[in-house]
Amino acid sequence: AKADGRGRWAVFDPVRSARDRAKSALAAALPAALERDELVIEYQPIVATDDQRLIAVEALVRWQHPQLGRLGPDRFISLAEETGLIVDLGDRVLATACADASRWLAEFPDAQLRVSVNLAARQASEPGLVGKVSTALRRTGLPAELLQLELTESAVMATTGEPLRSLRRLAALGVRLAIDDFGTGYSNLAYLRRLPIHTLKLAGAFVEGIRGDDPVSQVDERIVDALVRLAHALNLSVTAEAVETRHQADRLLALGCDTGQGRFYGPPQEAGGITALLRGSADV
Ligand code: C2E
Ligand code: CA
Ligand code: CA
Predict the structure, then answer these.
(1) Crossing angle, helix 215-233 and helix 246-254, to 10 degrees?
(2) Each residue's pLDDT tens digit, 244-269
(3) Sign of the torsion angle spanned by Cα atoms 253, 256, 258, 263
(4) The complex's ipTM?
(5) 92: helix, coil or strand?
(6) Which residue's alpha carbon is nearest to atom 4 within ligand 1?
(7) Where is the EAL domain (predicted)?
(8) CA dist., res. 106 & res. 114, Å (int)
(9) What is the tens place of the pLDDT at every residue in 119-154?
(10) Helix 86-107 crosses helix 14-35 at what angle (to 10 degrees)?
(11) Which DSSP string do the residues of 130-177 spell out, in sequence order?
């Protein structure tokens, strides 16, 4: 047993401690990784549920680790949030996403492809946010309307005062705001009145529940139905996340979801994959 620093004794757990060591090793390596440009962005298609045309892509960060290979954000985003590095990391993601989207706009102007970028709570309440977003838009020439920022309900709830005004300023510039993982956070919807939200992204958990005709599935369908009605009553658009099967895609279309995202429509892929998709639909 070993003292945990708060005067308590913890039982030594070799598996846990190996995991913690691996985690702190990653945390220590992250700043250098950022310097060496080891972050890669993959883009996942967001398509119209009715005809599957490409409407937007979500930027999802990965870490191309020299020894460990490509690591998903679950391995390092929470570390970056704890250390504050998330702000620098987020700046990189934003700049790259705007640059790629601007290139897609130049090559495929008819597609009007939007790019959706995740914003951590810490970024949302950072004083430089409006300046950084405006700079990224100006440098890349991307129209504000083609940028969407995704915030979770808890990030929005944590945002008050000046940061809340920054989000409103961004919305006034034309940037779209989306609520990520909608339905899993607070049941308090007051933030919908405080912020000009454009889109609700329904949490994957509800979509996952749509499996067939079992009773659980019926409940999840009713929840989705109610959330879509709520969203549409407020003039918000609805994106369903984690769509994996044709059955789910069919049900979500019937329930009125506007757009969908998930392996059924297409996996996250590097920018070149999206360019190929755009080229394919431009040819037909
Ligand atoms: P998220 O924003 O909810 O992103 C959607 C996640 O669903 C992604 O996980 C995506 O790869 C995954 N996904 C795609 N298709 C399917 C499917 O058919 N079924 C299921 N079950 N999942 C699917 P990923 O890429 O591992 O990202 C995990 C989380 O990391 C994201 O969740 C987001 O919260 C965070 N994240 C990713 N990139 C960034 C970033 O640049 N900044 C910040 N702050 N967070 C990020
Ligand atoms: Ca997201
Ligand atoms: Ca999500």
Answers:
(1) 40
(2) 999 999 999 999 999 999 999 999 99
(3) negative
(4) 0.98
(5) helix
(6) 60
(7) 23-282
(8) 13
(9) 999 999 999 999 999 999 999 999 999 999 999 998
(10) 50
(11) HHHHHHHHHHHT--GGGEEEEEEHHHHHT--SHHHHHHHHHHHHT-EE
In angstroms, what is the span from residue 7 Cα to ligand 3's centroid? 39
> What gap in Å lies between CA 134 and CA 147, rounded to an integer?
11
Cβ contacts of 184 within 8 Å, gap of 6 or more: 153, 203, 205
Copy the structure tokens of residue 213.
């005709």
Single out the residue of 264, 207, 269, 209 nearest to residue 239, CA to CA: 207
- Residue 12 DSSP symbol: -
Residue nearest ligand 1's atom 37 by CA: 60
For a pocket test of ligand 1, which of 118, 156, 182 has the largest count of ligand atoms closer than 8 A to its C-beta? 118
Please tell me the distance between residue 97's alpha carbon and the centre of ligand 2 in angstroms.
Answer: 14
Q: Is 77 in the pocket of ligand 1 (CB under 6 A)?
A: yes
Question: 263 CB less than 6 Å from ligand 1?
Answer: yes
CA gyration radius, the chain: 20
DSSP three-state, residue 53: coil
Determine which residue's CA is closest to atom 44 belonging to ligand 1: 120
Which ligand 1 atom is at minimum distance from the Cα of 204?
21
Distance 58 CA to ligand 2 centre (A): 7
Distance from Cα 238 to the centre of ligand 2, integer Å? 13
> What residue has token string 């059955």?
247
Q: What is the pTM of this model?
A: 0.93
